[in-house]
Amino acid sequence: MRVLLVEDEATLAEQIAAGLEAAGFVIDRSRDGEEGHFLGDTESYDAVILDLGLPYLDGITVLRRWRGAGRTMPVLILTARDSWHEKVEGLNAGADDYLAKPFVMEELLARMRALIRRAGGHAAAEIACGPVVLDTRSGRVTKDGIVVPLTAQEYRVLSYLMHHLGSMVSRAELTEHIYDQDFDRDSNTIEVFIGRLRRKFGHDLITTVRGRGYRLEAP
Amino acid sequence: MSRRAASLHTRLLLGSLAWIVMALVATGIILTGLFRETVEHQFDSRLAEHLDQLLAVARTDVKDGIAVTQPLSDPRFRRPFSGLYWQIDGPDGPRLRSRSLWDSTLALPPDATSDGELHWHRIVGPEGQDLIAVERTVQYDGPAGSVRAIVAGDAHGIDEATGHFTRILSIALFTFALGLAAAAAMQVRGGLAPLRKLRAALGAIRRGQASRLEGRYPKEIQPLIDDLNALVEHNSAVVARARSQAGDLAHSLKTPLSILINASQSGAASDNAAAIIRQQAALMRRQIDYHLTRARAAGAMDVLGANCPVEMRLDALRKAMSLLHADKKIDMTLAVETDLIAPVEAQDFDEMLGNLLDNACKWAVGRISVTARNEQGDVVISVEDDGPGLSASEREAVFERGRRLDEATPGSGLGLAIVRDLAMAYGGTIRLDESPLGGVRCRLSLPMTTRTGTAS
């Protein structure tokens, strides 16, 4: 899951990025409103963490511009401005969630996972595909109730496919969502991860749509 | 009995009335005097004419020395006690008199007049008549010698005419005074109309229906209006600045706090230190929230002209709640009176209702009902949920600062204390009781008229 983090405080941005990366997210970072807006407008993200008090362009304006341009990715506002008036304004400007500073990392993670899950149309916290279950709250994957250990990259691929259960996901799309923008994208590595996932969960979990991409079939 | 300055209306009206009465009484006195003078003058000149006629018909006579040979033209000289008399006195008393005097004589005070000079006297005549007499001393040659020729007339006619005139004049002047008083009253009313308009406009500001004094006023008042508008704007600017300063300080502290908390969770910190940092950070956050709210509530005290469209804000809040509690399927119904305006700042309205609705969303099983209406001048908003509810002692406890009944439900525990502080700042109240839905009902009441004075 690829997440855009727009936060001007460097230390805090570092901490958030570290926390999210440890939880299997891929992070693109921006330190001002203009760059943040550009990234959100041109790149494809599964979610955005947006500060409100930003240099050059404030967060609410960035958000309004994205929504005005038809960008629908879920956005969580993370700000020190925590009055209800500001919350209501942010949420009515198109944000999907609002978290006030100071916050606890677990809460940010839980909210991000819930946000991404809901954006994929999954109402429950767990996404199941046959015996394989992804718990979006903890980020754990089980098969027949037993936790299957995954590397960060394996988790990202599986998580993305499970969030898009039943839909065809192209290699390019998958690449875009599991690497950050600076990564030298080589789609061949995707095949390696798909191969490893098939070995861990069984060969028929992921279907290859020849020449187009992959699909996780809902049972 | 309070000692209040008399109203402008009363002052102006009493002033006008005093002047009207004084002017008209003076007019009456002067006119009556003038009229009396004119009538007296006429009377006197007629008496003088009679005297001339008397002297014209008086002839010197050998026997009596003087005789009136033919009657005077006015018949009243012949009718007894008619009120018009003549008499000719010699040096030793009356010698001739008119028939109208009958058996009485005119008693004139002794007087010495030079030849040809007319003298007037006020004397008492027959039957106690009040007479005005005019006399002239005439010097005849021969036995007649020096005589005083007197003509007297009843002054009663003068008094009667004057009295009649005074009565008519009084009625006319009184009517005139009434007209003037009515005109003055209308003028005062008309003149003070802009002040009444100003009072209505100020009332509208106080009730939150307007944010400035609208309309055009006479040029004497316009500077006052401009100053008042400037004051109202300055007032809200000061409040806004105080808020944003308090807010800025609070917010500038929150990001470092976030960093501290996050740092405590990284492996670098020992478990003990991490626990202390988190605990203290939580404490600091509560302090910040509390003082931020105090700043807001203090600002709310003096906000003039605050108003907030209830339905619009509740709609926005409902949308916010549906996102913040997206994983809970809550059916929130709004029943808001059309065009209801709450006399509070939108920020404070959102803060109060945001906390109430957030609480309701945390505790509700599936239903929340929000009603807002005007109850005898107060805006009353009820938030009810179908959650587990609170016991009477718990209801007391939830207002305590930092108190939370369930540590597992996230929140700083300031929510209801903030709502109560803000409601009190606006002179309102918050009450908790049981909802027919099964959970808690929060009843927030905000008075339409502000606590600083009433529009009596």
Give an overview in words:
The complex is a heterodimer of chains A (219) and B (456). Chain A has 8 helices and 12 strands. With 219 residues, chain A is of the alpha/beta class. Chain B has 456 residues and is an alpha+beta fold. Chain B folds into 3 domains: 10-160; 207-305; 306-456, Histidine kinase-like ATPase, C-terminal domain (Heat Shock Protein 90, 2-Layer Sandwich), CATH 3.30.565. Helix content of chain B is 50%, strand content 19%. Chain B has 8 helices and 14 strands. In chain B, the strands form 4 sheets. In chain B, strands 4-3-7-6-5 form a 5-stranded antiparallel β-sheet. In chain B, strands 9-11-12-14-13 form a 5-stranded mixed β-sheet, covered by helices on one side. In chain B, β6 (130-139) and β7 form a beta hairpin. The longest helix of chain B is centred in the middle third of the chain and has 51 residues, at 156-206. The interface between A and B is large, with 34 and 39 residues.
Keywords:
heterodimer, A: Rossmann fold, five-stranded parallel β-sheet, four-stranded antiparallel β-sheet, 8 helices, globular, B: 456 residues, alpha+beta, Heat Shock Protein 90, five-stranded antiparallel β-sheet, 14 strands, rod-shaped, disordered C terminus
Q: Please list the strands of the largest sheet of chain B in the order they lie side by side.
A: 4-3-7-6-5
Numbering strands along the chain, what is their spatial order in the largest sheet of chain A? 2-1-3-4-5
Number of helices of chain B: 8
Order of helices and strands of chain B: HEEEEEEEHHHEHEEHEEHHEE
**Structural class, from helix and strand content of chain B?**
alpha+beta
* Number of DSSP strand runs of chain B: 14
DSSP, total strands of chain A:
12
**CATH architecture descriptor name of the largest domain in chain A:** 3-Layer(aba) Sandwich
The protein's oligomeric status is heterodimer
Following the backbone from N to C, one meets helices and strands of chain A in this order, namely: EHEHEHEHEHEEEEHEHHEE
Low-pLDDT regions of chain B: 404-412, 450-456
The portion of residues assigned to helices of chain B is 40-55%
**Which shape of chain A, going by the Cα principal axes?**
globular
Structural class of chain A: alpha/beta
Fourth CATH level, the homologous superfamily of the largest domain in chain A: Response regulator
